[in-house]
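hey so i finally got around to running the thing on that chain from the lab meeting. sorry it took forever, my laptop kept dying and i had to restart like 3 times. anyway pasting the input first so we r on the same page abt which one it is
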Amino acid sequence: MPTDLAVALDAVIVAVSDEEPRVLVRAPEGTLPAGLFDPDADRTLEVGLRRWVTEQTQLQLGHVEQLYTFGDRDRDPQHSDGSRMLSIAYLAFVRESPPAGPARWRAWYDYFPWEDWRQGRPALVDEVIRPAVEAWVAAAGSEERRLRERRARRCTGTRKAGWNPELVLDRYELFWEVGLVAESRAPRGPVLGQAMAGDHRRILATAIGRVRGALGYRPVVFELLPADFTLFRLQRTVEALAGVRLHKGNFRRLVVGAKLVEATGRRAAEGPGRPAELYRFRRDVVAERNILRVSINSPAR
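ok and heres what got predicted. didnt touch it at all, straight out
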């Protein structure tokens, strides 16, 4: 018999405020704003997404982009009758404002605390993650163990390999298999980060990886800033998204040298000392180049 198929539209809505990247979630379920696609009422998928977001949060979205389609079997426990739930996720950037209804802004590092390296290597990487992953590797047979070692090295930076900030989804899926997250089929020991319903933390991991990757080739960060900003605020916003501290001089030389910004001729107070110069994004700049790649891969020492 044919399987019934339902199509959901999920929104990962990202803002940065107080140097923290935040995502909009519905309380108390801990889900992303979402709803079913209505082919009769919604002319396009994006129209349906915007309708659901407005109904649930009263927020009006600007630019949105399709993120990924999630359709694994049994991904939604509410559809245990054999029907299939297909979710088409979108990513949107906004400036934080109070949402209506049960929606709340939450720091995305509440869900992924191991991804925030701005204060250095998180203690839980060595205290919890590395021992658990090493035990998972050791528990396999010889052939499987080699595969697990390779995967662990790539995802977590073990065995002298570096930690790649963009592999957010790969790490989450590894931790799901090891049992380090509450959504795992068999959680073991302490679980890490705030859980989300269904596979919404997996969707969020996909979005964070997309955002971090995009920092290197297109200026998504400027969608999260006011029209005029200081270079300090620009750097702190990039650092919040990337999860690392960047070298101040290198960052500023890269941004100014690439002519991504231009001075406004005005200044704004930003703490004690001389007021900082205000800049604006040059929207006429062609974005098809490695805008911030060097700086993100060269964090402050």
